[in-house]
TrEMBL record:
Organism: Aureobasidium subglaciale (strain EXF-2481)
GO MF terms held by the record: transmembrane transporter activity
Localization terms from the record: Membrane
One cellular component term from this protein's GO annotations in UniProt: membrane
Descriptive protein name: Major facilitator superfamily (MFS) profile domain-containing protein
Length: 491
């Protein structure tokens, strides 16, 4: 084989790896889009109680968010390839199981396990990017593809979810995802670079000594309890008064305080610390995590309330609503390509600021929209603009965060990013629900379920999304101005 043939084969292999990694984030968003459209029908067919109707949506993020750091740490020890393939296989199996669910308990349980399977894939995918692609253009494009797969997958999921729900059944959204997942698993097993062979005793020894297990327990416990309370709030705000939820909320902050003290002690003694406290003293790291939290909270809430607006206020069918989301995957793909090609040429803070302004305009347009207006007058532009901020933030944030962790801890780095983004999604959904419901309840409309009353609350939710992105913008201008260009090729 000639050198030219080797280069061509290498490029094909890298392209397949890029596709597999992008799919690991795209599949979750695809299914989120399917569920967003199908949940009213799913609730009827599976007899989901009113207070649990949003749990098939939120429990995925809950399970994923509280296991990401653990899976990232284990990935650094046993190898990212093994972890990624295990996650792909579990995700395929659990996705198919979701489509076969016959009652409330089954769909919630299988969505939970799907979230855990995703936590196998997401941190290890970040590790694989850093292992396969050297710093430079290919790594930047891969991170951009991974980020763009989220709005693209969500948009396609909503469209196909609307089609399936109105024809052959919502179950086929899960079946299709499982089938594609299986083929991606085969491709990944064929093309991903092999993990260096290590003796079993060495692996067990590293698992025992190289991972901050107590830090993991404290961090995961904090995230699990906080995420549970937040998920419960999205179903019924009155549950916050229940003693069990108050107790869990207090305990979650006790775990957080204990985690901060513990990792500080580990760092002082020179022992493994899950997320060293010194990292938070780095202005760039703290600011980018805050920005990821805010942008993902706004992005997720925007998509959910745009769906409510199209269906509950304008009275569109699920399929008609899904078609109105089509601009999002298109702009997501375009933003991906642009950011991936330009991230090493333009300062990272400029990318974050400019793309965030575009997303802020999307929420602003939906906050001032008149339901009687044509789709093309306002909603189309809002749908087209919304994914841009998340795409720009995803690429810059991943490149910045992974550069701050040593090569042997890239799984933890991926876990940190995805934990912050998943928590942002959950918190954003809970807070916008609280705001929308309270504003609607206090409105002057007698019928609180009328489109007019609902729209008052939805406007408040979109204004809150604007506030989140503006807060992110202010922090970016202050805290990211010295990060310079990210994703530069190293000589």
């Amino acid at each position: 084989m000639s050198i030219q043939d080797v280069k061509i084969a290498s490029k094909k292999g890298n392209a397949i790896v890029m596709g597999c990694i992008a799919f690991s984030t795209g599949i979750a968003s695809f299914l989120a889009g399917v569920i967003t459209i199908a949940i009213p029908i799913m609730a009827k067919e599976l007899n989901i109680p009113e207070n649990l109707v949003l749990w098939p949506v939120t429990v995925y993020s809950l399970a994923c968010g509280c296991t990401l750091l653990a899976c990232g740490s284990v990935s650094d020890v046993i190898g990212s390839r093994r972890m990624f393939l295990s996650g792909c296989f579990l995700q395929c199996f659990m996705t198919m199981a979701c489509g076969l669910s016959k009652n409330t308990a089954q769909i919630i349980a299988f969505r939970s396990f799907s979230g855990i399977a995703a936590s196998f894939c997401l941190p290890s995918a970040v590790s694989l990017i850093n292992e396969v692609f050297p710093p430079g253009k290919e790594r930047n494009i891969t991170f951009a593809m991974m980020g763009g797969a989220q709005p693209f997958g969500f948009g396609i999921g909503m469209v196909l979810g609307g089609v399936f729900t109105g024809t052959i059944g919502w179950q086929w959204g899960f079946h299709l995802a499982a089938i594609i997942n299986f083929f991606m698993f085969i491709l990944a097993a064929w093309q991903l670079p092999p993990t260096p062979v290590a003796h079993k005793r060495q692996i067990w020894s590293r698992l025992a000594t190289d991972i901050d297990w107590l830090g993991l327990i404290l961090a995961s416990g904090f995230l699990a309890m906080l995420s549970y309370v937040i998920s419960a709030l999205t179903g019924d705000l009155t549950v916050m008064k229940q003693p069990v939820n108050i107790t869990l909320l207090v305990l979650s902050f006790v775990f957080l305080a204990a985690f901060v003290l513990w990792v500080g002690r580990q760092e002082r003694l020179g022992r493994p610390a899950l997320i060293p406290n010194s990292l938070w003293q780095h202005k760039g790291f703290s600011c980018i995590c805050f920005n990821v939290f805010c942008v993902w909270a706004a992005f997720n809430a925007f998509e959910q309330y745009a769906n409510f607006f199209f269906q509950d206020v304008q009275g569109n069918s699920p399929l008609g609503t899904a078609l109105r989301f089509l601009p999002a995957p298109v702009s997501g793909a375009l933003a991906n390509i642009g950011v991936g090609l330009l991230v090493h040429r333009i300062r990272g803070d400029w990318i974050v600021v400019l793309t965030s302004i575009v997303s802020a305009l999307a929420s602003l347009l939906m906050a001032i929209i008149d339901p009687s207006w044509s789709y093309w007058r306002c909603a189309f532009v809002a749908q087209f603009f919304n994914p841009v901020g998340a795409d720009g933030m995803f690429t810059v944030a991943n490149l910045l965060i992974t550069s701050m962790f040593p090569p042997g801890e890239q799984g933890v780095a991926g876990g940190v990013f995805n934990t912050v983004s998943q928590t942002g999604k959950s918190v954003g959904m809970a807070l916008t629900l609280l705001i929308a419901q309270q504003v609607t309840a206090n409105s002057s409309h007698a019928d609180k379920t009328s489109p007019e009353a609902l729209m008052v609350g939805y406007r408040a939710a979109f204004w809150f999304c604007v506030a989140l992105i503006v807060a992110s913008l202010l922090v970016s201008v202050w805290g990211l101005r010295r990060i310079g260009k990210v994703g530069l090729k190293k000589d």
